[in-house]
């Protein structure tokens, strides 16, 4: 019996010991688990705050580049902001604080392979983020960026949205082509891109956007540095091709690049810059508002300061595309520049700083406002003139063809009228009554376009200038730049083509269009040419 009791006692003791050991081990394991959990949570918190700092850094870059593009930040600034910091607010209530300081005092000029000037200056961005629930956890990131400035008018074509280019007849265009989104290329005959710079921040397609069909013609693009020069065809090779990344570089030797090749969006002005009270209005020396002309804030009186008929209001112009009568302001460029009229000699009242702003706010609901530039064959200001409006602009007759100057027109929509235009025939649905004559325009343009939707083409680059006449057999010559930074806000009528019926608008001209190479150096730009701002990232480190 004693032996049995001893065995039982040993068993109980062993059980107690086991419980104690397990308890100790369990506690140790629990503590270890809790420590591991705390470490995991700490690591997650550090990772979270790192991501917050990254987000703040990206936001600071965007605010900086957009601020420069929209004339709110001096592109040569030594520090941004000049006082204080950039604050980025996140949805969870946390924030990141950033400052941007120049890393070099003087910008550099780089000449790219196309011979264009790019103005480069390095900046140092410092961003600090703090954890929303633990202020002892912070992360500070540093990034060196290259701020690159390119005049928008140093492109033959610059689109902020999708660029569609699908001409019917043969068409050739030289100069840089850039889209901040996608590019759609096609032709019914032959489209020749005579440039070593065709870029899209999105994709590049060899098809139509409105219905995804492939036009029957050929798109051929210049192969960079080829000697003799060659123009390999797309022949279906585009961003949807499995070999696009490498084959596009082999075929065109770097001319053609899309988002997968590192092409980035460039910041550009928003449409608000053209509105009354916006950048162009507030900086203009000469303003024409509802027919009243002021210079430097002083009203100019017709017959006293400027010739009679310098500005006229007419309502006999009918726009078939819009289906509305246009309440038009006619601006006679020659008369505004002064000279001898009505036995008097008038002073030149073209803007002293080269910027003229004009708008109308008195059109009725059944009308549409418009600005028309007439008698502009010679621009009598050495440094050229930029005319800006939030309304659709119509340019009638040869423009800037005598002693060509750096000239630009900025508008809600760009309408070109030949020297043969007559308002009296604008309502005639027979296009033969609106026959154009060959006309030349030497100007850079910024204007809105429509958005292509399924089954509804916006007209593409080939119809960027809106036409209202029968141009068959006539030559439309343009030397300049085609820039589209926004959708039209006022002239929103849809594009149509044809010579029959109530929607008759125009027939296509012989397009003799090309880039104005005098813009290439950046030293002979139209006044107040806006920047396209590109940010390229360099070295970065964590503090």
Describe the model.
The chain has 543 residues and is an alpha/beta fold. The mean pLDDT is 92. It is 16% helix and 33% strand. The chain has three domains: 2-152 and 533-542, no CATH class; 157-261, no CATH class; 304-508, no CATH class. The strands form six sheets. Strands 7, 10, 13, 16, 17, 18, 19, 24, 26, 28, 30, 31 and 32 form a 13-stranded mixed sheet that branches. Strands 1, 2, 3, 4, 5, 6 and 33 form a seven-stranded antiparallel sheet that branches. A hairpin with a 2-residue loop joins strand 22 (339-341) and strand 23.
Summarize the structure.
With 543 residues, this protein is of the alpha/beta class. It has helices at residues 2-69, 244-252, 279-283, 333-336, and strands spanning 79-80, 86-89, 95-102, 108-111, 117-130, 138-151, 157-159, 163-165, 171-174, 177-179, 183-185, 190-194, 198-200, 204-205, 218-221, 256-257, 286-289, 292-295, 298-300, 311-319, 324-332, 339-341, 344-346, 355-359, 367-374, 386-388, 393-396, 408-411, 414-417, 439-447, 475-484, 510-515, 531-542.
Give the tags.
543 residues; alpha/beta; 13-stranded mixed sheet; 7-stranded antiparallel sheet; 4 helices
Q: What general outline do the C-alpha atoms trace?
A: globular
Report how far apart the termini are.
Answer: 76 Å
**Low-pLDDT ranges:** none
Structural class: alpha/beta
Radius of gyration: 32 Å
How many discrete domains?
3
What level of helicity do the residues show?
10-25%
Number of E strands = 33
Number of helices: 4
| Major pleated sheet | 13 strands, mixed
Strand content: 25-35%
Average pLDDT taken over every residue? 92
